[in-house]
Each structure stands twice: as C-alpha cells, then as structure tokens.
Amino acid sequence: MTEKIGWEQEILDSVKFNKKQENLLKHSTKSLTDSWLVGVLYTRWKKLKSIREQPSPSCSSSFREWNKKVEDVDTCQS
C-alpha cells in the first residue's frame, strides 16, 4: 500500500520555515490571517511542484452584447 503524503508535509521536508509557518503547516489555523498565510504556502508548494491551474474562462460580456442578443431574439419571434 502506498503511503499518501500531504502537501503540508511535502513542503516542510523541502524548504526551511520560521516557527510560525512550521506551526501552521503542522497544526490548524486559528484566524483569517493564518489562513491567508497557509494559502501563500500552498501557492509556493504548487510553484515548487510546477503545478499550473487552467485559467478560468472569460464569462464577461457587455450590456451592448446582451441587448443585441435580446433584439435578435425579438426579431426572430416577430
């Protein structure tokens, strides 16, 4: 059976940290700022592992585009 190592342990083994960072990785967070710091450490780990997330699709549109679609539907229904 293969032993699964979490990203926290993996980054602890590869890089040196100050006591606060090490404590956060070994134990849980207690505040919002601790969560932010763990997020930064997670991003650092992803960079070390060359993990890239796919960019989210652009779902933005302008009112002009939306209005044109509505007008096109209205003309088709007439």
Structure commentary:
The chain is mostly helical and 78 residues long. The protein has a domain at 1-52. 62% of the residues lie in helices and 0% in strands. It has four helices and no strands. It has helices spanning 7-14, 19-26, 32-48, 63-77. The longest helix has 17 residues, at 32-48. It is elongated and about 65 Å long. 1% of the residues are buried. The model has no long low-confidence stretch (mean pLDDT 82).
Secondary-structure blueprint:
Elements: H1 7-14, H2 19-26, H3 32-48, H4 63-77
Largest sheet: none
Strand content: under 5%
Query: Over all CA atoms, what is the radius of gyration?
Result: 23 Å
What structural class do you assign from the helix and strand content? mainly alpha
What's a concise summary of this model?
The protein has 78 residues and is an all-alpha fold.
Essential attributes:
78 residues, elongated, mainly alpha, 62% helix
